[in-house]
Amino acid sequence: xxxxxxxxxxxxxxxxxxxxxxxxxxxxxxxxxxxxxxxxxxxxxxxxxxxxxxxxxxxxxxxxxxxxxxxxxxxxxxxxxxxxxxxxxxxxxxxxxxxxxxxxxxxxxxxxxxxxxxxxxxxxxxxxxxxxxxxxxxxxxxxxxxxxxxxxxxxxxxxxxxxxxxxxxxxxxxxxxxxxxxxxxxxxxxxxxxxxxxxxxxxxxxxxxxxxxxxxxxxxxxxxx
Length: 225
Ligand code: CA
Ligand code: CA
Prior knowledge:
The protein contains two helices and 15 strands. It has about 220 residues and is mainly beta.
């Protein structure tokens, strides 16, 4: 077991009995104006990451849905999509028709799903975790580094830095606990997180950190985990 994993497990065990109140965002309807922006803790020039979120949506399975967008002036640096066939696709530094790495997992629905994706540039190893269960490992963009100086948006897909938002790609539903680390967290830590245990906070994106910048009708509420 890696040292970092042991540290996380110690943190998990000390946090077991404590419930925590976190914010949650409800996107009530299909629009091209509702979104929230997260302020990163550090720049996203990353060679590895773990990105996690809790997500629930009743959008039909044939509708593509943006789950997470990190957009620089140059490109969609990191997009996570629920694609039209129901799979979950990760795109790094891409334009509209570029290749993604897709995972054919059970469809997202009204009951909350804990979703994580991990990527490591040194090997290209990419994994999806759904409710703590790990997918097969796929290889995607080895040697790549993400660009910094972008914005992190939940609820809409920006096709330029200024906008070009499409309601038919928007997120409708509830999203919370969006966190990102600059390393690949171990399987046990991700499994623990999926069942509500708190681990050291995201060092790239911290859901319990800076206020969300709210746009349009996105509603920020509190919930207890
Ligand atoms: Ca778009
Ligand atoms: Ca886009």
